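Q: Sequence in, structure out?
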Amino acid sequence: MLRIADQPAIYRRGTEVLPAHQGRGLYGFFTTEILKAAGVSDNGDADLLYGWRTRNPIVWAANARICEKVTPSLLGGAHDPALQAACIEMCSLLYPGKALEIPGMIMRGAYGHIKHRRQAYRGSASLVDAAMQRIIPDSADALLTVGIARV
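A: Exactly. Output:
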């Protein structure tokens, strides 16, 4: 467990679900179990900062859904200076020397080694995809996001 902004924090990295198993709720199940193991509960007695880096709209939407608020907010949430500071701190801790463009929390070239293949998205993922296409049209770029997790 990390400590970011004097709070417990988790950084989600590298969870992949094979295409044959996508759409079955496995990513959400893994996420819930990770948060429960970290002591997050739905009674709101403790905040846990939850961070992730992605350019995948489904992953971004799934992770944002379990947070009270996030930065950057792609779906119209209010700007939160404390979360922005936590995002900057998380980036400098986990990716020393890697530039983070503020306020968009963009990491240029993060995925230069892979090619993101766009697809037809539904629900909130389609809105996130539209925002990502405006903010990070290069498939090598990613967003670093931090939120306050809840289960």
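The helical segments are 26-37, 57-65, 81-94, 124-135.
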